[in-house]
Amino acid sequence: MIRFAIAVGCCFPALLVASAALSASGAIAPPPQAQPYFVSIKVDKAYMREGPSDANRIKWVYQRKGLPLEVIASFEVWRRVRDMEGEVGWIHTALLSRERTAVVTGESDVSVHRREAPDSEVLAQAKPGAIGRLVGCGKLACEVKFGAADGWIERARLWGVHDGPDY
């Protein structure tokens, strides 16, 4: 951590310049992102722990690269996450990616449409549990890419998105 001593009468612009220079050099981390937000698992095997340290007991071992998780809190290099089943624990940031993914939910296949409109051409069917890369979302559906195929799936059938324009 870098600390500054500010003398009485020190000019504000000098402090601002010093702060901007350190920020550009990477010495000061950017402010944390507002929570909650979604991330995905970037490795083949990720450990969810009871607390934010390797010394804490492992609760779950995720063996599904790309699985989305919701970040609900941060502590240093650890993120407190919630999975789609509601399980909460801590995962090291080295195991997480900012790439957005979503999981198809429900008991039956869901139609993948050419456009956001539900009456547009059906391109494929996605099975529950399928994970795709999230491209973007409209009001009622999100564009999801599954390997070489992509299309629109209704929001209500995806886990890994919030309501609103920032999805």
Describe this entry's structure for a reader.
- By secondary structure, this protein is mainly beta.
- The protein has two domains: 37-99, SH3 type barrels (Roll), CATH 2.30.30; 102-159, Roll (SH3 type barrels), CATH 2.30.30.40.
- Helix content is 8%, strand content 41%.
- It contains one helix and 14 strands, in the order H-E-E-E-E-E-E-E-E-E-E-E-E-E-E.
- A five-stranded antiparallel β-sheet has the order 6-5-4-1-7, with no helix packed on it.
- Mean pLDDT is 84; it is low at 1-31.
How many helices? 1
Gross geometry: elongated
What is the name of the CATH architecture of the largest domain? Roll
Major β-sheet annotation? 5 strands, antiparallel
The number of distinct β-strands equals 14
Low-confidence stretches are 1-31
Please write the CATH class name of the largest domain. Answer: Mainly Beta
CATH topology of the largest domain: SH3 type barrels
What is the distance, rounded to the nearest whole angstrom, between the alpha carbons of the first and last residues?
34 Å
Strand content: 35-45%
The total domain count is 2
The ordered string of helix (H) and strand (E) elements is HEEEEEEEEEEEEEE
Class from secondary-structure proportions: mainly beta
